[in-house]
Specification:
globular; 36% helix; Rossmann fold
Length: 182
């Protein structure tokens, strides 16, 4: 919003959820991060459940490290059945680091990538995430990504986008490709 004196008031502080069973949730959040940086905002990305070096890490490291901080909080092993203690420990550490970033005053956009999966897998308690949302500084945009968003998270969000598979090349045997999926 532009004020009469020409200054810009940022209308930040919304809660986004990108969920669903298709490709594009992390990509959408990183697109938002790029747009935010282009307007002078600072972004924190906490990637839950992930421990893999991807193209976004290269790009941020080479070109945007002053504006985007990205950290991963995963063990590198997909959780089948009951999570291991290490899964809980890494998720708790990531949650605390993200909470610190959220309240640091440095970031105007905070992305909790795959947090919905962490909640669904049981390594992050949904009540803790709801508390984080309730205590979020009003000027910080919060983005929560991942499949299987909890109904309580969907309820408190301002924007919910569900990625739905219509057609996907994975079904024809194409695996992850560098620069596209990783």
């Amino acid at each position: 919003m532009v004020q009469p004196d020409g200054s810009i008031v940022r209308e930040l502080g919304k809660i986004h959820v990108y969920t669903g069973d298709s490709k594009g949730k992390t990509t959408a959040s990183l697109g938002l991060a790029l747009r935010a940086v282009g307007r002078g905002l600072y972004v924190y990305v906490g990637q839950f459940m992930k421990k893999r070096h991807c193209g976004e890490h290269e790009a941020i490291g080479k070109y945007l490290s002053g504006q985007i901080k990205i950290e991963q909080f995963g063990t590198g092993a997909f959780i089948f059945g009951e999570p291991r203690q290490k899964d809980y420990d890494v998720a708790r550490d990531g949650f605390e680091k993200t909470l610190t970033a959220l309240h640091s005053g440095k970031y105007q956009v905070v992305i909790m990538d795959e947090i919905n999966v962490a909640v669904s897998a049981g390594v992050v308690n949904v009540e803790n995430l709801l508390k984080l949302i309730a205590e979020k500084p009003e000027n910080v945009e919060l983005v929560l990504t991942g499949r299987s968003a909890h109904a309580k998270i969907v309820e408190v969000a301002d924007l919910v986008t569900e990625m739905k598979v219509v057609k996907h090349y994975y079904s024809s045997g194409v695996s992850s490709r560098k620069g596209i999926e990783e």
